[in-house]
Amino acid sequence: MEPFEYVTEPGEPGLFFLQSWMERYPRLKAGFTSRHGGVSQGDFASLNMGLHVLDHPQDVIENRERVATAIKLPLKEWVYGEQVHGSRVAVVTGLDRGKGTLDRLTALQETDAFVTNEQDICLAALFADCVPLFFFDPVTQSVALAHAGWKGTVAQIARYTVEAMVREYHVVPRNLLAAIGPSIGKCCYEVDEALISRIDQTLDEVLPHKDEASIKKSRDCFYTSKDGKKFNLDLHQVNRQIMIKAGIMPSSIEITEKCTGCGTDFFYSHRKEHGITGRMAAWIGLSSDL
Ligand SMILES: [Zn+2]
Q: What is the model's pTM?
């Protein structure tokens, strides 16, 4: 079942809520923005959440305010990172509240993933095809968010995020819930052989060892090719496999069916819109209020 549910009210931002988690854990707030219900114009219309694209910063901040108000997590409690397609995981505390919300200089530098176990902090990252990875541990009440494009995927940012939760909060990975959010799907993500060889190296590390024939067959879940030169890659499945290797139960990993490339009526897509477009935000946080 699709874990992300689109909710829109007149005059409000259109938002995808991670409904399957929020129904079970009422203090948990998690989801993903759409491109609707903001004030940005032109290529960035209308709910662009990214300050690093050529949109007017005051419009982006207004959009961020609108989303924060709609979710009932004040913008001063949000934390943004300066994303670099790396694998560094920041440990976020109350001292970080508000960082990166109004400008890029205060954002957590070189940060593509973060973890926290404090309430009233909202972790936020920006996307336009890359894969948002959400993590929640109901036992220790800790949360994490990661940004995984192909670089973050082959760098196994999902694994480093789980390891940070284990190290910092003594999370037991089999208790974790994980969700893979809207991003470019296998249908729209065509890549070359060089990238597939990097993916193969990652899969060699995370898949159980098998003989040649079964390796070839099992790779079909992750990528397929008609001509042996261009490949359609499924980053969702690769990240799922990295999560399983990190100790998360397969039954605890939910994956969206929404593709940003097919869904430009709802999403910005870097690939489909040739690099000139806005950004969606993924968010996760625990509120002290019900
Ligand atoms: Zn697609």
A: 0.98
